[in-house]
Amino acid sequence: MDLSRWRKLPTLLLGIGFLIVAAGFVVSYKHDHLHNFASSWLVAFMFYLSVCLGSLFLVLVHHLFDAGWSVPIRRFLEHISTLLFPWMAILFIPVALLSNRLYEWMSHTAATDHALKAKQPLFTMTGFYVVAVGCFAIWWLLSHRLRFWSLEQDRTGGAKPTHKMRSYAYWGIFAFAVTLTFAVFMWMKAMQHEWFSTMYGVYYFAGSVWMTLAMAYVITMLLNRQGILTSVLHEHQFYYLGSLMFAFTVFYAYIHFSQYFIIWNANLPEETFWYAVREKGTWFWVGMIIIFGHFFIPFLALLRIDLKSKFSYMTAVAAWAWAMHYFDMTFNIKPVGHPEGFPWQWVWLDLGCLAFMGGLLSKIFLSKFVAHPPYPLKDPRLSEAMGLYHPVPTQISGGELDETDEMPDAPRSK
Description:
Number of strands: 4
Distance between the termini: 26 Å
Largest sheet: 2 strands, antiparallel
Number of domains: 1
Helix content: 55-70%
Number of helices: 16
Radius of gyration: 24 Å
């Protein structure tokens, strides 16, 4: 499979996206519609943040469970997770500068807003920026140190890097959960600060990992077809990625339905208004797209085991997953400024923000990928990932093999 014709795509996306974003900012500023620019930027930012955080989670889980099958895909996930800092932090700057256009509570006072007073001191200007700094600081520490020790493992092959990565993972998984929850609360849910949900962080997490697994599948298959990972892959990598994607399809649906059912059953105005807004106008149909497109279609598409190894089929499923996750981010953010329905007149700006960030992050990822070995060279579980094993003699007497026993064969593929 020749990918040379796609090499200029990130640069093309970056250039076209920059022109559209610049034009969108000028038009929004001129007509005093900066909220539209800010919301389009935030949708694209939270979309790509999902990929980076999902990659960091998969790296953490790899070390927590001492997994073998995920060794070949760990390196490119490490590179993607390091995009969290400084690049995602830089892309967050427009959100920080336009925060007063996105978050209505920033212009309110706690003395006149009971919902805001109940959430002090988190929902303050100081709290907003402290949370942002804290989240990016922890994400930088986890992503960069995990990749540092992974590359050190390539260099030395010693046990210390392996133990270091496991030590970062055991406390990092808790730090990851806390920071992701704070980030999605302050950057998405806070757009309607009166509303609250204890499941919102898990809801964003489930969608993020679901989309990241789809991306990881496509990247793994492309690297396999280019011969870059072929020597260290086994068919079970594709089976496990497809199975995990199927599992997170169900998990996301469970979390989303549970959140809706609990709020609907309680029937409290401070909670139900969030869904009431999203059942008006064209937002109702966007909700229907999410219900059927985010669950039923991928659920049925991923049921068959044999299809999880077909590149063309799974690529289509992965592209569908990305589209559904983007609809999900739009469903969460856009109704705040456009309660009457989906703002079709600003679709060009939405696509421009997606293209700009996607082109930029893709170029940086590719530069990181080509600068280092494509997979962990000296990971102790690499042979397990390749499906190699040593047969063990069934009987041993006196420390010697019995005459009826045979010496183990050389490592071979299952």
